[in-house]
Amino acid sequence: MSILDHFVADAKKYYSKGILVDTGPLLLLVVGLYDQNQIEQFPRTRLHTIEHFNRLKLILAEFRRVVTTPNILTEVCDLLGKFSAPIKEDVLLMSLAPCMDGMEEKYIESKSLGKTACFKTLGLADASIVNNAKDKYLVLTEDLPLWAHLRKNKIAAVNFTQLCYLQ
């Protein structure tokens, strides 16, 4: 089964449940919504293109619910700090804040996540994804170690980088 076939099958299965968006794709979304021309200029999204951004928007539109965690939002906000002061403020207010309004935020206490098996190898944000997603959401990530862990543990996950390069 091809990557695209896996995605289509998972998308159908999780359409009404939702998609949990990891830091990388969410950062691309926020930067692209602010200014598509910044995608290839911003250090953390420069490997992406406007076409990848458009593909991401189409993917997210396929789901009734778009989900994230406070840990992911914190990472995105920290990474947006790489913008200079006036742009950073605009990105936060004009792009990240509206994105957060359209997403469901799922929270698990950090002390609980710190006791999970995946915490020591994946870290806090990824542990929040693993422990929120199982049988609930399709995960969209470009983090290879996380993606491999999810697939190994039979948690539905799509590698966004692979989707970007499908013809």
Determine the structural class based on helices, strands and strand pairing: alpha/beta
N-to-C SSE string, H for helix and E for strand: HEHHEHHEHHHEHEH
Low-confidence stretches: none
What value does the average pLDDT take? 91
CATH class: Alpha Beta
Shape label: globular
Radius of gyration: 15 Å
How are the strands of the biggest sheet laid out side by side? 3-2-1-4-5
How many domains would you count in the coordinates? 1
CATH superfamily: 5'-nuclease
As a percent range, the share of helical residues equals: 55-70%
Number of strands: 5
Query: Per CATH, which architecture?
Result: 3-Layer(aba) Sandwich
Which topology does CATH recognise?
A: Rossmann fold
Name the beta content range.
Answer: 5-15%
Distance between the termini: 16 Å
Give the number of helices: 10
Major sheet summary line: 5 strands, parallel
